[in-house]
């Protein structure tokens, strides 16, 4: 969001057209994970299986078709055969684990594309509230995290009782850099130091614990020139008639959750015989933080 937009909104409220400035939004009582859990319930209820903790390590192809994947499971490597394959694993990883191996130019393209990682650090507090805000972006170069939020502000079910709250700080980083290399203990201590000593949001005696969660390859990096290697990989994947790519990492497109789910739904419809071009999802050059609504449509989102 631009500063000009913020100033304009302060004078004449934008009434929901600027997504970052909306006053209210719906959020699942038990958190964002409920979207996945409810979809999983529906999948299992219709007699299907979801295999968690099964990392795909090989994608076996024959001619223009994928015939099987090999996944690492608790019980060892397992080969799973199928008629259709839909991939949401990082596109670069997919290109590297195809068997027979992808051509050298595709493997080089997979090396050229990079992702940014994220580490979220959750600091649990004996305190009722730190801030009434939805998100806070932190632009100070001395502060190592870039954004923070207070889950209790989204749903009171995010804390055990009203006596408590928590802050989640987001560290954007890359494999091998000084942030990614920090231990969980260092990350929690760093976050507490910033929140207490630099920002004055909390006092140290309010802290009752903390933990960190690492998400490798969370953001496709749109480095100048990324389009060419991306086109090379997609051109290669397109050759396989029963393989579709979906999601954010799967397509190397900066998709949000709604786009990611939409690509999954359309891929499923394609399996059922419909013809949808998944490339068209989130292809508009519209800036995500501003909604352009047709005349007469209510602007609440
Ligand atoms: C900090 C943060 C905040 C965000 N906030 C919002 C928001 O407010 N609104 C919004 O709409 N979107 C938000 N997003 C974006 C949203 O989370 C993503 O767009 C969405 O999760 C992408 O869905 P996906 O299915 O492509 O990937 P994911 O949900 O990440 O699923 C990919 C899955 O593939 C698994 N995987 C990876 N490799 C393998 C392998 N080899 N074998 C098997 N499985 C594998 C991963 O473990 C993961 O579970 C946010 C993202 C981040 C990181």
List keywords for this structure.
globular, four-stranded mixed β-sheet, 301 residues, five-stranded antiparallel β-sheet, 2 domains, 28% helix, alpha+beta, disordered C terminus, binds flavin-adenine dinucleotide, FAD/NAD(P)-binding domain, Polyamine Oxidase, Chain A, domain 2
Structure description:
This protein is an alpha+beta fold. The protein folds into 2 domains: 51-113 and 222-280, FAD/NAD(P)-binding domain (3-Layer(bba) Sandwich); 115-220, Polyamine Oxidase, Chain A, domain 2, CATH 3.90.660. Helices cover 28% and strands 23% of the residues. A 5-stranded antiparallel β-sheet has the order 7-8-9-6-10. A 4-stranded mixed β-sheet has the order 3-2-1-5. α4 packs across α7. It is globular, with a radius of gyration of 22 Å. It binds flavin-adenine dinucleotide. Residues 55-56, 88-89, 93, 118, 170, 215, 218, 247-250, 255-258, 260 line the site of flavin-adenine dinucleotide.
CATH superfamily of the largest domain: FAD/NAD(P)-binding domain
- Average pLDDT figure: 92
The CATH topology of the largest domain is what?
FAD/NAD(P)-binding domain
List SSEs in N-to-C order: HHEEEEHEHEEEHEHEHEH
Ligands, deduplicated: flavin-adenine dinucleotide
Number of strand segments: 11
Describe the global form.
globular
Tell me the CATH architecture of the largest domain. Answer: 3-Layer(bba) Sandwich
Number of helices: 8
Low-confidence stretches: 296-301
What would you call the structural class?
Answer: alpha+beta
Number of domain units: 2
Strand line-up of the largest beta sheet: 7-8-9-6-10
In what range is the share of β-strand residues? Answer: 15-25%
Largest sheet: 5 strands, antiparallel
């Amino acid at each position: 969001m631009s500063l000009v937009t913020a100033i304009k909104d302060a004078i004449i409220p934008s009434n929901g057209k600027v997504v970052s400035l909306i006053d209210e939004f719906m959020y699942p009582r038990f958190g964002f994970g409920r979207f996945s859990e409810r979809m999983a319930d529906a999948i299992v209820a219709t007699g299907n299986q979801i295999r968690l903790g099964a990392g795909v390590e090989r994608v076996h192809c024959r001619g223009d078709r994928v015939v099987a994947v090999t996944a690492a499971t608790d019980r060892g490597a397992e080969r799973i055969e199928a008629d259709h394959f839909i991939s949401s694993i990082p596109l670069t990883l997919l290109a590297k684990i195809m068997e027979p191996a992808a051509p050298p130019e595709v493997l080089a393209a997979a090396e050229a594309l990079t992702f940014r990682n994220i580490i979220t650090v959750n600091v649990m507090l004996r305190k009722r509230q730190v801030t009434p805000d939805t998100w806070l972006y932190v632009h100070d170069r001395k502060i190592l995290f870039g954004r923070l939020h207070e889950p209790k502000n989204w749903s009171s079910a995010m804390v055990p009782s009203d006596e408590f709250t928590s802050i989640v700080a987001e560290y954007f980083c890359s494999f091998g850099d000084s942030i990614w290399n920090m231990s969980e203990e260092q990350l929690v201590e760093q976050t507490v130091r910033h929140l207490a000593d630099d920002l004055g949001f909390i006092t140290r005696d309010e802290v009752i614990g903390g933990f960190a969660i690492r998400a490798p390859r969370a953001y496709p990096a749109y480095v100048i020139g990324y389009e060419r290697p991306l086109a090379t990989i997609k051109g290669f994947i397109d050759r396989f008639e029963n393989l579709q790519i979906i999601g954010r990492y799967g397509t190397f497109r900066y998709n949000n959750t709604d786009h990611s789910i939409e690509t999954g739904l359309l891929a499923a419809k394609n399996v059922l015989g419909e013809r949808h071009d998944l490339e068209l999802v989130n292809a508009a050059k519209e800036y995500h933080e501003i909604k352009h609504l047709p005349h007469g449509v209510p602007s609440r989102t």
